[in-house]
Amino acid sequence: QVVELISSAIGDLVQGIYYENSKSSEENCLTDDIGISTWKEQVFLSHSALLAKSCQAAMELAKHNAEIQDMAFQYGKHMSLSHKLHLDLQPFVKESSSDAMAFSLNSAPAVLHQEFLGREAWIKQIRENCRNPPPCASLFRQLREEIKAGRGVTSAIDLCRCHGNRALAALERFPPSEARAALANIVDAVTRF
User: Fold this and answer.
1) GO terms for CC (predicted)?
2) 85 neighbors 159 (Cβ within 8 angstroms)
3) In Å, what is the CA distance from 157 to each residue of 23, 64, 107, 115, 161?
4) Range list of β-strands (E), 11-55
5) Which region holds residue 35: left if phi is over 0, alpha if psi is between -120 and 50, else beta?
6) Measured between alpha carbons, how far is 172 from 170 in angstroms, rounded to an integer?
7) Alpha-carbon separation of residue 12 from 21, 22, 36, 41, 48 (angstroms)
8) N or C: which terminal CB in the chain sees fewer CB atoms within 10 Å?
9) Which of 28-32, 46-50, 129-133, 149-153 bottoms out in mean pLDDT, i.e. has the lowest?
10) 165, exposed or middle or buried, with CB in 10 Å at 0-12, 13-18, 19+?
11) Which of 136-140, 162-166, 180-184 has the lowest mean pLDDT?
């Protein structure tokens, strides 16, 4: 059972990385089909599946029942999603002297901003501005400011905290211990802004 879980997690990881790499080779990393649900699916495959299934496998090795295994899986899944959201948010929330902090157009704040703005209008604006020199350098600064001013960042923070709360809810099913407190502290660290 453990070998199956880890094997499927590695399969998910490979599929997620392949998907990310195939999309990043497209024109300026733009994809016509990514929304927040697609973002979540992709992040689950490339980031969350390994942690979630590893947590589940640990409970299997400890001979816990299916309910406890599922709670461990849920903790790993939601903890990993909140961690990825935290990473995606850094270029938008981190106070940095570097104005050129890189971000992906497929990061959660950008995807959410595009959904609020209107996906087609956003893609059209990016493509029109990228045709003019310099090749997208000043555009990314402008886009970052627009995303920061819109609802994409606040929605991504809310989503990060939502997944963090789901991870904490899964932890509540385990008896109090130092290990549980440490896992809760990890969630707290990635949901604090």
Assistant:
1) mitochondrion; transferase complex
2) yes
3) 25, 34, 12, 16, 6
4) none
5) beta
6) 5
7) 14, 15, 19, 10, 9
8) N
9) 28-32
10) middle
11) 136-140
Asked whether the beta carbons of 43 and 81 are under 8 A apart, the reply is yes
Residue 116 · residue 151 · CB < 8 Å: yes
38/101 Cα distance (integer angstroms):
25
* Domain tally, the chain: 1
Task: Return d(Cα 14, Cα 143) in angstroms, integer.
Answer: 31
* Residue bearing tokens 């901003």: 113
End-to-end CA distance of the chain: 39
User: Residue 26 carries which side chain, given as an amino acid letter?
Assistant: E
| Domain CATH number, residue 17 | 1.10.600.10
Token readout for 16 is 């997620």
Kindly report whether the peptide bond that precedes residue 175 is cis, defined as omega within 30 degrees of 0.
no
Q: What is the pTM of this model?
A: 0.86
Question: Cα dihedral angle (129, 133, 136, 139), rounded to 10 degrees?
Answer: -60
As a residue count, the chain comes to 193
